[in-house]
Design a protein that fits this description.
By secondary structure, the protein is mostly helical. The protein is built from 21 helices and five strands. A hairpin with a 5-residue loop joins strand 1 and strand 2. The longest helix has 26 residues.
Amino acid sequence: MRLLLSQAFTLLFLLAALFLMGTGYGFHLALLGLLVCLAGSNRATIGVFCLLFGAAVLGYVAETFGYVGWGGDVIVAVGLLLLLTKPAFYAAILQSPRGLLLILWCTSVFVFFYLLGFQSNYSLLLLINYSKTVLLTFIGFLFLFSDRSVNWTQLGLMTILGSILYVAAAGRLDSSILPGSIFDIGCLRTALNVNVKDTTRLFTHYVGFMPVCGFLFLYCKNVSQPKRLWDLILLAITLFAAMVLIAWSGARQSLIFLLLGSASIFLCQFEGKLRRYLLPAAAVGLVLALFVGIGVARNLTIYKAILDPNVSIYDKLNRSMVYNQAFSQIAERPLLGHGLGGYQYSLTYTRKVEREYAFAHNVLLDMLVQTGLFGTVAFFLPYVLFRAYRKRFPLLRHEIHGNVILPIFIVYVLRMLVDDQLFGVGAFVGIIASMDLVQQVGPCSARTFFPTRPMRSLPPAGDMKRWPHPGLK
């Protein structure tokens, strides 16, 4: 009952924050909603949120209040404290040697090319960003895969509220960017392109990425169980909130994330997926079509380009210029690349100011520019060469304690492919590394053999008779 009340009040604050964003009250309402959601969550759920999303959002909020540079680190420390005090965490780490070896290998590749390259402040920042991301993602997903106490509904609500709070905090710095209504499509992108100074430093792609992940946490929870009325209400409201935030951001890639992420549920293996997910998936498609239709009707080029058959895929992604520069730099040093941080590109942007592009918005091009063919092959070699890592990708399609991770993983991979600064690479490595404990136990199911209770409650190793599961009957 307490959890139900927490979720009900969270939804009220969430909707109020969306509808009243333009008035300036969105920040207070989103913050209240997040606090209510945190109050109704356990420490494992709060810890995972802090590591995966909270550090970026709440760190940015702290900066808007003048606490620059350490807000995110405090949130990371809080998240680690909440998770590291769980005794089962250390057992999971000890049972994840292959994951830790994978992290060590991939990090070593980047360290080598950092030493080979410029060794500039930006190169060091890239290495630090990657290292932090891979470790935080590894720990966060280790709990997602293995700890049943992590509440995916609460995690999804906190993630969406985090995105709303992110936008509202930027509005505290510059109120002109705030949307006038829920249908103010592309307002953030337009405002930031016009505002030459851009004091907010708002990353519009992150505004769209977070609510997609938040919605999918609810979408992928308990996939084999019938959806109750409250579950459908939660899905409907979070889908609406995610679409509003994506529309405000003007990030076309987030539309693709939401479409492919929700559709990929049909690639997963669980019973009754057509019966349970045909209607929710159709609802996602209809909402996407509605907002894109409104954008096209208003002659917004960011949406018209998606539907124009004469526009190339590069231009649909708005990446043709940076991609072409990457190709030319790869041709200069194809084998060993230019070293970490070696991609640099200047152009006259739409705001009539020169803008520096420090990454190619594509993980493969970024890797080839910075580490060359040798470094790129070395980085991805374990996923091809060793069966222990290859077999993890099919397991993403299976239920893990009733939930599926494939749609969320696909969103992370898509983000890495089209808009990356080694954050996406770090998240990719962290997710795959965290799967040491995942094992298939039936035709449609996987399980993590990770104690969330004292060790004596576990069955003997290999004894599956005490783990009743439909796939084993």
